[in-house]
Structures are given as C-alpha cells and as structure tokens.
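This is your field. Please look over both lines of this record.
***
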Amino acid sequence: MELEVGPGPGYFSARVAQALPQGKLFLADIQQEMLDYAKKRLTRENINNVEYRLCNGTSLPFSDNIFDVIFMVTVLGEIENKQEYIKEFKRVLRPNGILSISEQAGDPDKMNINEIGELLKNTGFKKEKIYGTNNNFTINFRKE
C-alpha cells in the first residue's frame, strides 16, 4: 500500500494508482476540496484502487507500519510542523519502507536537497537515492 500526502487535484495520483493493480493508494490531504478534485479525476479515468482521507499530518488515521511507500510532490515546504509530520510518517511506514519527497522549480515553497537532508537527519530515515537535478528532484529515504 502507498500513501500520497497532499495530492492536490490528483495530478500524480492516477499514474501511481495505475502502477498498483494489486495494491491500493491512499490520498491524504488537509483540504476536502482537493480530495474531491482528485476523486473526480481518478473516477473519470476509471481508477478504483484509491481511498481518500481528510486529515492532518500530525495524527494520520492509519495503523502503525502499514505503508510500503509514502510520497509527496511539492508539499513539504508548505508544512508548518514538519517534524510532527515526519514522526507520523515513521509510525505508519513499514520497516525498510520508502519516504519519497519531490520538489520542482517554480514552487514558491520549494525546499532544496540540503534542507530536506537536514530536516530528516536523526529521524530514523536514511537518505537512499537522489534523482534529478537541483531544480527538479526526488529524494528517497528508507526507514531504518
């Protein structure tokens, strides 16, 4: 199972859900409106292996160690209480699970690679791989 945090209107959700034909993608957002947009988009594309959860990141409505992957695209910089979110990500992610953080040029809240690395230092996540460039990148961290 995978969790997308802050999916907005589901732009990336469709492709991920389609890549999980036997699995399930959960979308978690603090705005019901964004979940409604995402649901409309995915329903229109006939994607049915998705569940939607309105929640904040400080108390996710999921069991411990349930997700294989948690990902977010241009979201982390918008979060005020980042350490609380990271603590929750660690709780709901399975051992050896992946936390994947993507940032893109043009995002006014974009964090850089070093800022994200520092943020996750000593949190129980180990930086595994960086894809892309300094402007557009994804960093994968593995739960230790």
About this structure: The helical segments are 13-18, 32-44, 82-92, 113-119. The radius of gyration is 14 Å. Residues 2-143 form a domain with the Rossmann fold fold (CATH 3.40.50.150). The mean pLDDT is 96.
